[in-house]
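Annotated sample (chain length 114).
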Amino acid sequence: MRALDRAPSDVNSIVGPHPSRVTPPASAIATRAAPAFSLLESAQLLAEAIRSFTERCACGIEPNVKRIKQNLDNSLLPVTALNPRIGYKKAAQISLLAYGEDLSLKMPRSSPAI
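Output written by the structure step:
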């Protein structure tokens, strides 16, 4: 007797149904959908937080130009832009002098200590 003669008529009884024909259990579908649902929920929460911040905080804010200019003039941060031209050591000296004597960065350049 040949092997083909002994083969069952239904191939599915040996190897099982083709994967494309198998319906996954509901728990598997829910498990795959959970990350997408979580992402959508997070996006909705973020959108609501932005909307709330805009309505309750950001609307109506006016810049205080005088205070912004004062803070910019007294900041020591721009001295870092001098590093490539005058070197780190010299820029650090200028910054320390300005900080120690409570000066703006424009003033210590003319100081004899530098």
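Annotation: The two ends are 105 Å apart (CA to CA).
Annotation: The helical segments are 3-6, 12-15, 26-58, 65-74, 83-86, 88-100.
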